[in-house]
Amino acid sequence: GTRMVVRFFGGFDFEAKDASDRMPARVGYTKGVPMGGDLSKAPAGKTPTFLVAALKDPIGANLDRIQVVKGWIDAKGEVQEKVYDVAWSGGRKPDAKSGKVPAVGSSVNVAEATWTNTIGAPELIAVWKDPDFDPKLRAVYYARVIEIPTPRWTAYDQKRFGIKMADTVPMTVQERAYTSPIWYTP
Length: 186
Prior knowledge:
By secondary structure, the protein is mainly beta.
């Protein structure tokens, strides 16, 4: 499988300029907790901020986007989850209504079971602030990094064995990496 490198830190003092530092781990450990850590009671008027950095597998596909997935139990006791696009490749813009970034596209040649790294980015890094933070509610955050589309094993088998897969068989995949979570405890 893919071997992306992902770093994820949470705190209350990350700033946009921290994403420009070439040593994100140094900044992350200085200003926050690493993935697997716990943020305790938010200081008055502060919102959690997260520093997330991803580097593509040296022999793998470029990166499409980084997302932060937030889970929480609302005031009514209902489990909630929301996915935020926080960094992405190319000049794409988030949809004005949904906030979602459009698909990266595809460079996959299914017939040949090949792809090119002509789309995507070799690395992505961002600082993200939770726009829906409620300091009274427990929450959990984790990062998900998604690669550009590549041929799925079914495309390789189709090419190798000279067969035609059914139209319902997926021929591409977008590999992913997930971080350990960071918990917020009021």
